[in-house]
From TrEMBL:
Domain annotation Proteinase inhibitor I42 chagasin: ranges: 70-156, 178-269
Organism superkingdom: Bacteria
Gene3D superfamilies: 2.60.40.2020
Keywords for the protein's UniProt record, in alphabetical order: Protease inhibitor, Thiol protease inhibitor
GO MF: peptidase inhibitor activity
Pfam families: Inhibitor_I42
Record protein name field: Protease inhibitor I42 family protein
Keyword Transmembrane: no
Amino acid sequence: MKKMTNNQPVQKTARRQAWKAIALTAGCLGLLGTGVGANVIHAAPVTMTKVTTEQQKTTTSKVTNKTIEVAAGQTFTINHEEIGSNGYSWTYTTDKGITFVSKSEKAPKGQDGMTKPTIKTWKFKADKAGTYKVTFNYGPAWKKDAKPAETVIYTIKVSDKKAADQSTVVDKTIEAVAGKTFNIKLEQNDSTGYSWTYKADAQLELVKAAEQATASNSKSKDGDPIVGAPTNKTWTFKATKPGTYKITFTYEREWEKGDKPVQTIIYTVHVK
């Protein structure tokens, strides 16, 4: 058995102190990112931000500029389509000087009988000459502060001419024979909302009114009918006795009765 010397406990104590010093040094170096333990990285936690579908949508919208020229005191209309199922609708703002007159809507049906998007019509009027703005925005009705999907800015140029000056009046003469019929044929475009109406003296009797598509522009190259093409309408009258009579035709929208028509034709009928 090996005999221990008196200096062995001292050596063991020295070795333990040396190992403690080494361990303490390694720990400090690890905290500094060098030496022993440098391969251990303590990263700060990362918060992931989820991007919602709403945030991914673009913040820009379609903007269109249009110009309307009218006379002071003359009404003008603005039409826009709406699809009720998507919850979007048109709203507007106007400059001072533009007066709102009325609003109407119509849901036309196509050739297949299905209802098309609703056509809404706003009627305005400016009493004084100048340049004004009417801005229409198309967006979700339930979210008033949302970015509109579409914006249409109308520049309204109002001249100082009287509204009466904007209407065209034409005088025409017709020769007819008592007891025999005569025709008046005019072109109209129902898709614009404008149509011809007439007033005739009592001695002139309406026999019939017929409407047919114009041969030149009622069909495409493929032979299909063109939607919105003008049509020819023919009125057949008969005079009961000789004399000179009047028939006045006006071209206007049905919902704008009372306004100045865009065109008036006065027929003087000389009946022999």
